[in-house]
Amino acid sequence: MYLNPGFAGNTVQARAVMNYRNQWPAMSGTFVSYAASFDYNIEELNSGIALAVQQDRAGSAGLRYSNIGLQYSYTIRISRFLAMKPGLSFSYSFRDINQNELIFGDQLIYDNPTSASQTRFDAEPVRYPDLGAGTIFYMRRWWAGVAFHHINRPNQSLLALESRLPMRFSLHGGYNIAIKKNVKKKDISTVTLVANYKAQGKWDQLDVGAYFKYKIVTAGAYYRGLPVVKQNGYNQPNHDAVIALLGFEYKDLAFGYTYDLSVSKLITNSGGAHEVSLIYEMASERKKRKRRRSRFIIPCAKF
């Protein structure tokens, strides 16, 4: 749902998700993210709804970004095998910083413990609405989607000035390949190819990868970067990270772990990144039986 509001309600009945990410833990002023969401599939109305909350903390002064949002999606069956899910998101964001952890230039002058520069932060914390939209086309084995975030380009400045948040664009998709099936034609093992390109302002990023699933175990690897197409600001190949994924499912509960190994110049002192996901899906037996006969849930990555 962070990727595209069209994914809201993409479950049998209801789903709760929690995420934790710690990026570059070996460096001071790390970037830590928390997220949680709950979404529900209103099958009778061909709709999905979701509530999502997120908080990021970055830097030694604890620059904090908090967001709470609602999402809605609607399923349109184009044919017997093809469907699309447009979605909308509306969220409200809060942005602030811990001034007590900041040191200003005029505080370095002898016998001047206070700072006139701190008054420039009188406008914080900043609050603003944020709008997004997206759509996904999919069949039983593949999906492809596009999403636009920060459509209203909110002002996020902490200094009572103007600093517009650029709109973020993403293009993503995947293909699921059945490797082995049982006598009931149910998948036992699969390989899924995935890709996600996103751009915001003058920055962009590409993730490509694949993961293998065998019964309750999922393992995969991804690469993040644009080394051939684009150079970074230091005239170096645009490499970022190689990512390993491991996931387990037990009944309605799923657990996923990923580790980002930096392959840029930060490889020796960043500590990579750790991310943990916990997913719990809830559905009545009637809904589960009906799901087995239905093809109109996007076959996207669970982790």
Write up this protein.
- This protein is an all-beta fold and 303 residues long.
- The protein has one domain: monomeric porin ompg (Porin).
- Helices cover 3% and strands 54% of the residues.
- Strands 1-2-3-4-6-7-8-9-10-11-12-13-14-15 form a 14-stranded antiparallel beta barrel.
- A hairpin with a 2-residue loop joins strand 13 and strand 14.
- The longest helix is centred in the last third of the chain and has 9 residues.
- It starts with 13 loop residues before the first strand and ends in a 10-residue tail after the last helix.
Please identify, by name, the CATH architecture.
Beta Barrel
Radius of gyration: 22 Å
CATH topology: Porin
Share of helix, binned = under 10%
- Give the domain tally: 1
Let me know the number of strands: 15
> How do the strands of the widest beta sheet line up side by side?
1-2-3-4-6-7-8-9-10-11-12-13-14-15
Low-confidence stretches: none
Main sheet record: 14 strands, antiparallel, barrel
What's the pLDDT, averaged over the residues? 88
Approximately what portion of the residues adopt beta-strand conformation? over 45%
Shape designation: globular
- Separation, N- and C-terminal Cα atoms: 12 Å
Order of helices and strands: EEEEEEEEEEEEEEEH
Please give the CATH class.
Answer: Mainly Beta
What is the count of DSSP helices, taking H or I runs of 4+ residues? 1
CATH superfamily: monomeric porin ompg
